[in-house]
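Reviewer 2 asked us to include a model.

Predict the structure of this chain.
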Amino acid sequence: MDKHIIMVVGGGGYVDSHMVKDLLQANYNVITFDNLSTGHRDLLLGGKLIKGNLGDTTLLNRIFSDHRIDVVMHFAAYSIVGESVKNPVEYYRNNVANTIELLDAMVQHNVKRFIFSSSAAVYGEPREVPIKEEHPLRPTNPYGATKVAIEKMLSDFDSAYGLKYVSLRYFNAAGADASGKIGERHNPETHLIPLILKVAMGERHSIKIFGTDYPTRDGTCIRDYIHVSDLTQAHFLAVEKLMAGGDSAIYNLGNNRGYSVRKVIEIAARITEKQIPAIVDGRRSGDPAVLIANSDKIRKELSWRPQYEDLETILETAWKWHQNDASDTKN
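Predicted model (structure tokens):
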């Protein structure tokens, strides 16, 4: 029996590189489609790489003509909240317009299974916590708005063309592969945990805390952190669901618990055994006070069971990766 072919749109980025690695280990054929504008070639540990832009319809049609693709996974969105507020046109162009081209090419070539990397940003400032999938979608920034727009498109494409999808609404992806070979690397870096660890490594003088006047216990934002390998496991379950003829679905991915910015800094200092100075700054536009998932739906329907639920373990894997990555950069 031929191996199934998974097309990973993105692939050289954070979650997507872990996805490629795990797909290859599970004996899938993997085609990575990425322009590597924000991704990294060295994070891709195998498979076939096709370099190109998502809006290139000619190239997309050629890929779908040349390969019998079973499932498309889409990770190629721009994802920096502050940047989306300052430059929304680029976010709507890349995240929405280019995704239309991808979905259109899939329909033209009868590729009917799609897994979408969505976000907790679709919810905006939550009315209730933990957040269920049925919570109203009221994003507070253009990044979240683009995810809502794509989810609406997916629903319409399902109704019109029979394209089945699973949309996975990540909360805060964190950590690194247990091997330490791949992990989180952005340029510029905007995510809290790698920024904290860069302070521990001496690459930065301090970490900024954006706002200490939120309605939380210590005044700083609270987030639900989920290990990147638990995210990829959820994607596997989504692939199995669609390959078995399952219907479209939307799932939250989180650990159902939250940690404040100050708490993350405290735990990181304990794990790294380093001083991590913090500087208080003003709130960032579009940052909700609390985002914690209710992920009961995917646990019940797909039997998803996170393996790295505590933040200490998540930080330990991230710390191992950042030390290895810094060592490789020096050599």
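The domain at 5-174+225-253 is CATH 3.40.50.720 (Rossmann fold). The two ends are 43 Å apart (CA to CA). We have added this to the supplementary material.
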